Amino acid sequence: MQAAQGIPPAMTARILVVEDEAAIREMLRFALAREGFDVEEAGDAAQARECIARRPPDLVLLDWMLPGVSGLELVRRLRREESTRRLPVIMLTARTGEEHKVAGLELGADDYLTKPFSPRELVARIRAVLRRARPEAAETGPLEADGLVLDPLGHRVTCGGRPLRLGPTEYRLLRFFMSHPERVFSRAQLLDSVWGENVFIEERTVDVHIRRLRKALSASGHDRYVQTVRGAGYRFSTQV
Ligand code: CA
Q1: Which residue of 70, 147, 154, 218 pairs with 223 in a disulfide if CB–CB is 3.0 to 4.6 A?
Q2: CA of 52 to the centre of ligand 1 (A)
Q3: Parallel, antiparallel, or unpaired: how do β-strands 143-145 and 226-229 relate?
Q4: Distance, CA 72 to ligand 1 centroid (Å)?
């Protein structure tokens, strides 16, 4: 399949940037958002842990030098806990000594970048770590339903070979539906599974994103597979 030129793929991995210097955080957000990543920010280790508990990101970009708990110590703690043991982490640091690099990697950082680095290098490293870190996506392979193909590894959705542009939430919603076809989910179940537990959002938000997803799928007629089940919720079914 050849991607059409000029249409970016739905690359919607969520990156948590942990850095106390607002200017650097802003620069990272800008560079990552431009590449289509969803970016969250934390100014210290405590904020980072809150963000991760609320909804685990796909990758953490973690500055070594933080006030209070250092980046290195945060990695150590993340690796000790079952829920965050395999969370991909790339460390950022101004230190150049090899010994620090070894220390970072031994504690479980997946990669390591020394400041200053180019946005291009950063994005390449992030993509490489994400590819390595998503064996479940690799095992799953692309999800397919009547010409609609969702590739979890590349975060791409195509309809009859043509790339489809989806917002990050619509992508996650569609991915969830296509991994669980023919099953009815209540709005509350969709919120838990797609938005994450402990997220307090009104149930009607689900309806908003269902509408957006249907709109995106309507050009190819796949919107009819996103079905309303009265009094119960929604279902993805190719049986219309
Ligand atoms: Ca810092």
Answers
A1: 218
A2: 19
A3: unpaired
A4: 12
Task: List pLDDT tens digits, range 123-164.
Answer: 888 988 887 776 554 445 788 999 999 988 778 899 888 999
CB 225 within 8 A of CB 237: yes
| Distance from residue 33's CA to the centre of ligand 1 (Å) | 20
Q: Where in the chain is the domain with CATH 1.10.10.10?
A: 143-236
Distance 1 CA to ligand 1 centre (A): 42
Between the alpha carbon of residue 64 and those of residues 51, 103, 107, 147, the distances in Å are: 18, 11, 12, 45
Q: How far is the CA of 160 from the centre of ligand 1 (A)?
A: 46
Q: What CATH architecture does domain 9-133 belong to? A: 3-Layer(aba) Sandwich (3.40)
CATH topology assigned to domain 143-236: Arc Repressor Mutant, subunit A (1.10.10)
What span, in angstroms and rounded, lies between the C-alpha atoms of 136 and 142?
Answer: 11
In three-state secondary structure terms, 179 is helix
Compute, in angstroms, the gap from residue 60 CA to the centroid of ligand 1. 14
- pLDDT for the residue numbered 4: 35
Whether the CB-CB separation of 57 and 32 falls below 8 Å is answered with no
Q: Is 164 exposed, middle or buried (0-12, 13-18, 19+ CB in 10 A)?
A: buried
